Amino acid sequence: MHEFALVLADILLAGAPLVLATLGETITEKAGVINLSLDGSMLLSAMAAFALASATGSPWTGALGGMAVGAAAAAILGLTNIYLGQSQLAVGFILTLLCRDLAYFLGHSYSRQPGPTFGLWGIPGLSDTPVLDALLGRQSPMVALSLGAIVLCWWWMYKTVGGMRLRAVGESPRAAFGRGIRVRLTRLAACLIGGALVGLAGAAYSLAVKPGWGRPQGCEGAGWIALAIVIFGGWHPVRAAIGAYFFAALQVSGIYLQELFPSVPAQVFQVAPFPMMILTLLAVNLGRVSFVQDMMRRYPFLKRFSGSWPITSPAALGQDFDPKKGL
């Protein structure tokens, strides 16, 4: 049981930045904006966080810097799309390439250099419970932040007026505008909040999960995985977090399987989580396939299985809104 708790602790740590990035993108897409700059934003935020933490000696200052970088990248996307009418997908894709190249160019002097990290924090009183002590007794503060972010995001999105407005803007911006909601401002705020969480995810990589900076850093591709997990989670913060931990479990299991099967090339276990995630996405989206829908019409009992993990995107996802065009 103690060994299982240690494995779970590794999954919580590996999944922390993915959870933060996935929650950030969930908030952004709930408002109807698709941010494709995640991968580049996370890299640039990871570099900026490590550089700032090295300069100040404080990982928390570095984390704030990473959040600022992520929010700045999202602000560029928001302003160019929401107010200038440019394509979300095109701007996001250009941003991810730009941020990635900037990260490696500006961070060259910090490559493979020592720097501060968050380290491990202990929770008093858990030493009498070995399982809990192994799971949470000595963890990075990023684990606590990610767990708290799940609860806070769910509560704000579904239990507050602000969250209701966010979802209204993502479902029907014209109806929300008719109700007096400032659609553009709400979308921009969602971009900034989501971008800040993505930036914190980048900082979590370079200051906690995979400390340091270099090429490769270790979080390459994590942004694209976060985008896929948002779909897997059906644009719901709790289910998206489950998807993030599922992917982290695949990564951690690859490490243990590599020890059990040393004759298998290490690259196999490093790459395996990605096709597994693709297969999972296909599985949860089967309910949308035409022949599966035909089968459900013939055999109604299949609907019980198809509705167990609903995948419904915001109705106005990716759609522009111009208040001058009227209702």
Describe the structure.
The protein is mainly alpha-helical and 327 residues long. It has a single domain, classed as ABC transporter involved in vitamin B12 uptake, BtuC. It has 15 helices and two strands. The chain has helices spanning 2-30, 38-56, 59-83, 88-106, 130-137, 141-159, 161-171, 173-178, 183-209, 222-232, 237-260, 266-271, 273-284, 290-298, 303-306; strands at residues 121-122, 138-139. Strands 1-2 form a two-stranded antiparallel ribbon. α1 (2-30) packs antiparallel against α9, α7 (161-171) packs across α9 and α11 packs antiparallel against α13.
Kindly report the CATH topology. Answer: ABC transporter involved in vitamin B12 uptake, BtuC
| Cα separation of the termini | 60 Å
Instruction: Please name the CATH architecture.
Output: Orthogonal Bundle
List the total number of helices.
Answer: 15
Rounded average pLDDT: 84
Largest sheet, described in full?
2 strands, antiparallel
The backbone outline, from C-alpha atoms, is globular
Q: From the alpha-carbon coordinates, what is the Rg to the nearest angstrom? A: 21 Å
The fraction of residues in strands falls at: under 5%
Tally of separate domains: 1
Low-confidence stretches: none
CATH C-level label: Mainly Alpha
Helix fraction?
over 70%
The H/E string reads HHHHEHEHHHHHHHHHH
